[in-house]
Amino acid sequence: MAIIGVSRVTGPGSFNILENLVNAGFSGKLYPVNPYADEILGMRAYPSIKDVPEDIDLAIISTPRSVVPSVVQECTQRGIKAIIVVGQGFADADQEGKELQEEIVRIAGESGARILGPNTFGAANAFNRFSSAFIATEMERVPIGLISQTGFFFVGLPKFNMVGKAIDLGNACDIDFADGLEYFENDPEIRLIILHIEGVREGRRFMEVARRVAKKKPILALKAGKSAEGARAAQSHTGTLVGRDEVYNALFRQCGVLRVSDVDELGDLSKAFLRLPLIKGRGIGVITLTGAGGIMAIDTFERHNLHPAKLSPETLRKISALAPSWQRMDNPADIWPASMIAGHPFEEVFGTTLEAFLTDQNVHGVVLIFAGFSLETSIDPTESILQVAAKFKEKPIVCWLYGLEPEQMASRLEKMGGIVVYPTLDRAARALSRLNEYLEYLTYQE
Length: 446
What we know:
The protein is of the alpha/beta class and 446 residues long. 38% of the residues lie in helices and 17% in strands. The strands form 4 sheets. It has a 7-stranded mixed β-sheet, with helices on both faces. Strands 15, 16, 17, 18, 19 and 20 form a 6-stranded parallel β-sheet that branches. It has a 5-stranded parallel β-sheet with strand order 2-1-5-6-7, with helices on one face. The longest helix has 21 residues, at 425-445.
């Protein structure tokens, strides 16, 4: 791998791609190219790509825009087929930059080389510790593949985790979303694909590829530039013509791509698709420590095309046996009286009720609502919940924790797997609804 135009300056604030690769532990061969340096970070530096003695698989170009066409020409003459152009100032800038971008596309096309960028962080892969980003990025080996028009998500999804592999298309002068989708399509290390889209140039090809890939892996899309001002900002950012928002809505629906509204929903659905099974219907069971929480849940379900499941007589019999004689148990199931008045151990009530719900064929998923306080000062139902959840892995369970200190319980529930905790009821219900939306798409395609 050659890094052309790599800086001689290293250390904090240097934005040195070579240094970032070394610090990340990348084990491949690296060849710095800089005509003004003899060595960088202890590695021999070469005056030009023509002087590198070994075959090169990838060239990363980080030079002033005026010389990029000639550098691309030299790369193609060396037989290099993969090129990342990092710098800005091309179609994202002015007419001269647009013409320079068109020239590098022409040069690469004549040799069969492919270009990622320009105006890009490039690509990153946590599985082999590679990143062409000019800022240090922390990544984890998680089964999420990202295709974006920004390096923003290279540092992770807010309130969730890192991505495992990432492609920043930048101006997408050559390699585009369809190429990225095909790259992840049969990648066994990637189970979920995330798109950050400002604009798609080849809509027909995107539709064809996305429809095929969505049958294998869920695809989430955060489409930027919905407003008129946002569209203008997108054109300035990557030189992309955004197009009408309703056209993208129709495109995504036909392809089975799930559009998300913001980064919070992106993180919420990423957790849901990686940790939960698809929900086979829209009937939801609610187990709560507060009657008010159950009522709020029902109101929330209506906004997301969900409904409280009608419990079977057997389920009603099981949960009614726990309650005081005066309490009418149903769905939502308020289990507070069963413990505080009827005297059943709190953990037993939670576990028994959850198992009864999950056994019921009318219940397709469950929402748990209870207080999250410090584990040292409160009753802890997590063990009984996790034991039951482990026996019913085909139905999703989500949880809303209210209270002053929910973090410890939330961390324990999610660490053991099988349950996802959300900060609001609305976000929990939305996640269940989108899981079913994807299953409905898959079913329709059969």
